[in-house]
């Protein structure tokens, strides 16, 4: 069960971990709140989650490019 949890956490783009670090909360708590809100709002927070995942991916890509240019 722990291996499945680790696999899901690594493949979830790190959005909950990023939000947890920014807000000062544990990523597990952010994940639970996200799941609860998704059930209440009929899945619409999934769009927000995907947008944040896309933004984090673009942000890391820009940082990699910027470092490569200035070195």
Description of the structure:
The chain is an all-alpha fold. It has one domain (2-70). 82% of the residues lie in helices and 0% in strands. The protein has 4 helices and no strands. The protein has helices at 2-10, 15-23, 27-40, 45-70. Helix 2 packs across helix 3 (27-40). The longest helix is centred in the last third of the chain and has 26 residues, at 45-70. The N and C termini lie far apart (43 Å).
Can you describe this structure in just a few lines?
The protein has about 70 residues and is mostly helical. It has one domain.
Question: What's the helix and strand layout?
Answer:
Blueprint: H1 2-10, H2 15-23, H3 27-40, H4 45-70
Attribute tags:
mainly alpha, globular, 4 helices, about 70 residues
Beta percentage is: under 5%
Main sheet attributes: strand count, strand direction, barrel closure: none
Give helix and strand order, one letter per element, not per position.
HHHH
Helix content: over 70%
Number of strands: 0
Q: Could you tell me how far the N terminus lies from the C terminus, measured between alpha carbons in angstroms?
A: 43 Å
């Amino acid at each position: 069960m722990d291996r499945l949890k680790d696999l899901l956490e690594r493949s979830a783009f790190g959005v909950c971990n990023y939000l947890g670090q920014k807000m000062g909360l544990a990523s597990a708590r952010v994940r639970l709140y996200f799941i609860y809100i998704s059930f209440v709002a009929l899945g619409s927070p999934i769009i927000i989650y995907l947008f944040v995942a896309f933004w984090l991916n673009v942000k890391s890509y820009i940082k990699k490019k910027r470092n490569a240019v200035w070195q």
